[in-house]
């Protein structure tokens, strides 16, 4: 008989760290609200949630790495909003954050969830922070709960 593991979307008894960038807070605050709301709706109590604010997207990875390495969390959810400007800065920030979060997954064994918006326009960011396209923070919370459940089963 084939054994199969499927993750359940439930907060369980684990704790969740949420790292959120203060830069573009009018967007990231909405992502955070969506994340917390989703986790609560799936059974998480406030004592299971730990929010860490950092200055910008580049600081997400070092903070998320330290949280993951602590062994205290079922998953670390990374929230930010990088919006393209008129310089190449956008590309450098996005590359650093994507690579850093992926590296945390490989090195720590604790799921680090990518909930960082990388948008060309402010309108796109607004759409993904709770309007036309749902809330990417809630999506990140769903992913965190499911993968944490998978990891518990392995």
Characterise the protein shown here.
- The structure is a single chain.
- The chain has a single domain (26-153), classed as Rossmann fold (3-Layer(aba) Sandwich), CATH 3.40.50.
- It is 47% helix and 22% strand.
- The protein has helices spanning 25-41, 60-69, 89-108, 122-128, 136-153, and strands at residues 16-21, 49-54, 75-83, 112-119, 129-131, 134-135.
- Helix 1 (25-41) crosses helix 5 (136-153).
- The longest helix has 20 residues, at 89-108.
- It is globular.
- The mean pLDDT is 96.
Keywords:
two-stranded antiparallel sheet, single chain, alpha/beta, four-stranded parallel sheet, 5 helices, Rossmann fold, globular, 154 residues, 6 strands
Q: Give the end-to-end Cα distance, rounded to a whole number of Å.
A: 17 Å
Helix percent reads 40-55%
Q: Which architecture would the CATH scheme give at its second level? A: 3-Layer(aba) Sandwich
The overall average pLDDT, rounded, is: 96
Order of helices and strands: EHEHEHEHEEH
Radius of gyration: 15 Å
Strand order of the largest sheet: 2-1-3-4
Instruction: Estimate the global geometry from the Cα principal axes.
Output: globular
What would CATH call the homologous superfamily? Lumazine/riboflavin synthase
Structural class: alpha/beta
Low-confidence stretches: none
CATH topology: Rossmann fold
Strand content: 15-25%
Profile the largest sheet. Answer: 4 strands, parallel
CATH class: Alpha Beta
Total separate domains: 1
Q: How many E strands?
A: 6
């Amino acid at each position: 008989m084939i054994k199969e593991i499927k993750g359940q979307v439930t907060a369980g008894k684990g704790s969740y760290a949420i790292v959120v960038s203060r830069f573009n807070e009018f967007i990231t605050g909405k992502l955070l609200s969506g994340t917390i709301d989703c986790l609560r709706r799936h059974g998480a109590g406030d004592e299971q949630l730990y929010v860490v604010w950092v200055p910008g997207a580049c600081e997400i990875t070092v903070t998320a790495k330290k949280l993951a390495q602590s062994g205290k969390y079922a998953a670390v959810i990374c929230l930010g909003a990088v919006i393209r400007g008129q310089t190449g800065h956008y590309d450098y920030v996005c590359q650093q954050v994507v690579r850093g979060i992926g590296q945390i997954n490989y090195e720590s064994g604790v799921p680090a969830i990518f909930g960082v918006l990388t948008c060309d326009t402010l309108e796109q960011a607004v759409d993904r922070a709770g309007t036309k396209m749902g809330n990417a923070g809630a999506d990140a919370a769903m992913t965190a709960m499911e993968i944490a459940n998978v990891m518990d089963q392995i």
